[in-house]
Amino acid sequence: MTTYDDLRAVFINCTLKRSPAISNTQGLIDASSHIMEKQGVEVTHIRAIDHDIATGVYPDMTEYGWATDAWPALQQQVMDADILVLSGPIWLGDNSSEMKKVIERLYANSSILNEAGQYAYYGRVAGCLITGNEDGVKHCAMNILYSLQHLGYTIPPQADAGWIGEAGPGPSYLDAGSGGPDNDFTNRNTTFMTWNLLHLARMLKDNNGIPAHGNQRSEWNAGCRFDYENPEYR
Known about the structure:
6-stranded mixed β-sheet, 6 helices, 6 strands, 15% strand, globular
């Protein structure tokens, strides 16, 4: 029987509401994280806006004029996890400013290499969850998932889920009468996403991540070309 109790997952909530304000996005996060917890996965929740994360694209922004930067400690939690789920609301049809900041800070560490000479995010899986009162779930997910795969994360099938209410002002996901927690389409997609993350994380962990051939920046820099033939020399 397949087990998952040696896996770690990090959910980063990119709501614009500080704790203890109710986050509708957290409601959808909880639906996914509870499935993981039932499988023994160690789950960490981070509400980004509760932390003094500096703006920038370097690993530690205190080296570039910022007095404080909470990101390096949060980044370590990300690196300790097998699964990353970025989650947030839709504003003006797009991801929140906190989501943009978190992706920029993840990008700041993307050039770091692992022991095999690959980019450090290799061997990890990622997905996303979106909530809102306006259209844009797929647009937001597209941006997030593209960004994460570009950084080196492996994206499983059906790696996103979301819920939106009626266009315009109206009840949010956790509000009474919204129908959000009872929406079968959202619940199905959230469940599929969660299990696909678990399955792929299991596969990668059992096989020591992505095979280290043809994708090692350290070897490319050393002159290895992995069968690439420059047309100029054919």
